[in-house]
Amino acid sequence: MRQLSPESTKQRFTPGIICSMILAAAFFVLFALSGVDAATTVKDTTVSTTMSLPQLFFSLSSASILLIPLSLVCMICALIALINRQRNVGMMFSLVSLISFGLFMIFFSGERINSALYSPLSDALKEAGVKFKKRDVDSIAVTFHPTVYLTLACAGLVAGLNLPHLTRENERRLLHRDLLPYAYIAPHLLFFVVFFITPAVYGVYAAFTKWDLFNEPVFVGLDNFKTMLLESENTYYRQLRNGLWNTIKFVLYSVPFCILVPLVLAVALHTKVRGSKFFQALYYFPSLLSITTVTLSWRYMFSPDYGVVNRFFGSTENWFTPPYSWAVIVIVTVWWCTGATMVIYQSALASIPQDHYEAAAVDGAGAWQKFLHITLPGMRYPLIYTFVTSVIAQFNIYGQPLILTGFANREANAVLLMYIQENAVKKQVAGMSAAMALVLGLCIMIVSFFQLRLMRNNAPD
Amino acid sequence: MKKFLSLILALAMVLSLAAVAHADPVQITYWSVFTGADGATMQGMVDAFNASQDEVFVTHTPMTADDLYQKVPLAVQTGTGIPSVCIVHIERIPNFVAQEMIYPYDLDLIAEAGVKEENYNSAAWERTDIDDEHYGIPLDVHSYVTYYNKTLFDQYDLNSYVEDGYLTFDEVKELGDKAKAAGFTGYVTDLGWMRSQLLCYYGQLDPELTLSKDGIEPCINNDNMRKVFETMKDLWEGGYTSVKNTDYSSEFYSGNMLVWSEGIWMKAAAVDAGIDFGMLPAICYSPETCMSWTSSHNFVQFADENRTEEEDLAVAKFINFMGENSLTWAKDAGQCPAHLSINDVAEFTSYPQAFLADPARADELAIYKYLYWGLFDTAFSRVGWDFVDGTISIDDALAQIDQEIHDAIAAQ
């Protein structure tokens, strides 16, 4: 069989490819201009409304709408493939885009009552003076604008223009070769788009809305950010500052111990003392438990009334109040995450050549000098790696302070994720909560950026 | 062979006729906020209902209140998995109504099943009359009350303080001083679930239970609430209360506390602890103005356009059964049933919480009604011990509560 070079799958910019690229671009323009008309009749009163497809997308009001981002992402991939002159790949993505957009139209028009459409229609009925309940609305009739069909047609044309001639063996072989890798990653890609890209995009959008989780979000631009960053009297200004500062404090307190404690244990176990395997399993065991189990167990141990800690020391201290509360939270965290880090260090220690130690011993180096000049440099990369992962993990602190102290002590241990969760779920202030989450995400990204640079600079050759 | 075939045919006909005559029961899904022992008690009541008839079959799904209040809006929003009937706390109902999340009851329809206003505790029933519609059927009323240790009261000769059936703040201080002078070394009383205690005392100063003047903007920062906060702080500073993070229930069970402010739902646990106790309304400023913070578990029907009238009627039958057979709920869960027929049950009248079911004392039940109860609850509970031990001043605490609610409403 003739071998195909990787370059052979790329083609020249033919009129077909250029036309496809224009159609793919038109797909997005038409999508942005598309909309639906909706109408319903309640108690002899008919009301109607119009909603654009982008609005509908951001309403996320039914499962069928999840097909829209899938269609959009696939068309973006198709466009990128066409720019790279990979017609088969472009055809495949545009075909998936076509199918998902078509399915969206079928499922969406089959819905009896869509909540995004119900909201404006309900307002219109109220304005018309109709007294009604939701169950009085039999159904909402949906009519797609012509641009919706044109959007669908664009996707169809992109796919059609790039269909290979399956009768030709060479094209069949090319198709097989081009698409096989995508077949392998397709399941992951599908879940990635539906369950990661979509919520992420929606989360970012929610940060710019006023939203009570139940009704449709209302776009408010930068209002949420202005409120929490500039209005010093506002609750969310206070919460952001307090939550972020407490999160940073926790990272500063906990990360050194999350590295030092496992390092000491790993070095100790590396000496192959009797029963080292048992202790290795013992130290690793907490990592297998859920944070709720771990924190509740420690909560009982530190209980002022019945805790084993106070019994042991004959104390009556309340460990869940300042100045002890941070110490307790750090102890619980370190106990929980030591095992996983320790295993990484053990692996790194095992990879340091034994003859380095033997040579150092011949030169008269003591244990401390060996540790400082052989062990630590030999573990440089794992240390930096665990430093980076620990910082990111501890920025996401939530369960420990929530269970151990909650919002008590004038929110002395309230971290940002606690505020985010409470605002979104309990108070239904989801827009502001998403904005807070975005700020936290940006902080983690900035810190991670510098850490990753550090890691790259210290990567082993 | 012919005979055999005839026999088979006849058997098939008899079986199919039997199947037609025995129609499938109406399936009802029921979500409740009862977990642990209360969940088991409720399941027992549901089982009793299912066994009592064959027209309706109820499937009970218990979960914590937090879970339920998160899951139900999602179910309503997506239109799938909406329970036929659900238990919610009465304070949540105005907000659900404003969000159009629950349907009003068709009073004529439910009356067919025996569910009628005159059968229920008026204080609880009236709270869910909104805009000429009715939204909740109360299962119970559960108040924050005062338990006292009878053994200790006998030992330190304190019974004169509770003879009138009330205990005032001044009396708590006096009896505490008297017991301590006689050698009692435990706690006089506790600062327990602060939110509920504070709301008991606030109701005594403001029987209108005003949390907002216009129904939206909070007005917690007022003189009455300030006095309530000062009362709590005064008790703590005087050494009459338990200290922060005390396991106050265990202190009471172990005979180390004279007077215990707790919910009636802890009665069963107190009985299990083997302690001899009495029950009174909340500690009060004076018996004439005494009110106890009260909530009520209500049956509501969340918006589901697919639910049929047949199901609504089946739900009403279930609710009526629960009302008419609520002694178990009073006995095992320690609650006070809202169905007035409970007052005719001799066994119930001997229970310590029976005074809460007395229609003549219905105005002692402080059942709050505020559109933004959820926001109020979170903000109000937040300051808890912080104002008592001076971590935050009372003025700052009150201002913070109003600010938090105001900002959350603005951001919703």
In short:
The complex is a heterodimer of chains A (461) and B (412). Chain A is mainly alpha-helical and 461 residues long.
Which helices and strands appear, and what pairs or packs with what?
The complex is a heterodimer of chains A (461) and B (412).
Chain A lengths: L14 H19 L1 E8 L2 E8 H7 L7 H17 L3 H24 L4 H13 L13 E4 L1 H16 L7 H38 L2 E2 L7 E2 L3 H8 L4 H36 L5 H9 L6 H11 L6 H6 L11 H26 L3 H9 L4 H12 L1 H16 L3 H6 L3 H4 L4 H11 L3 H28 L4
Antiparallel strand pairs in A: 1-2, 1-3, 4-5
Chain B lengths: L1 H20 L4 E7 L3 H17 L3 E7 L2 H14 L6 E5 L3 H6 L3 E2 L3 H6 L9 H5 L2 E2 L2 E2 L2 E2 L1 E10 H6 L13 H13 L12 H12 L17 H15 L10 H6 L5 E5 L3 H6 L4 E4 L11 E4 L1 E6 L6 H16 L2 H6 L3 E2 L8 H4 L15 E2 L6 H16 L5 H18 L1
Parallel strand pairs in B: 1-2, 1-3, 11-14
Antiparallel strand pairs in B: 3-12, 4-12, 5-6, 7-12, 8-9, 8-10, 8-11, 8-13
Helix pairs in contact in B: 9-10, 16-17
Task: Give the tags.
heterodimer; A: 461 residues; mainly alpha; MetI-like fold; two-stranded antiparallel ribbon; disordered N terminus; B: alpha+beta; D-Maltodextrin-Binding Protein, domain 2; globular
Summarize the structure in words.
The complex is a heterodimer of chains A (461) and B (412). In chain A, the strands form two sheets. Chain A has a three-stranded antiparallel sheet with strand order 2-1-3. A two-stranded antiparallel sheet of chain A has the order 4-5. Chain A has 20 helices and five strands. Chain A has 461 residues and is mainly alpha-helical. Chain A folds into two domains: 201 residues, no CATH class; 232 residues, MetI-like (MetI-like fold, Orthogonal Bundle). In chain A, α9 runs antiparallel to α16. Chain A is 69% helix and 5% strand. Chain B is globular. The model of chain B has no long low-confidence stretch (mean pLDDT 91). By secondary structure, chain B is an alpha+beta fold. Helix content of chain B is 45%, strand content 15%. In chain B, α9 crosses α10 and α16 runs antiparallel to α17. Classes of the chains: A mainly alpha (461), B alpha+beta (412). Chains A and B meet through α18 and α19 of A and α3, α16 and α17 of B.
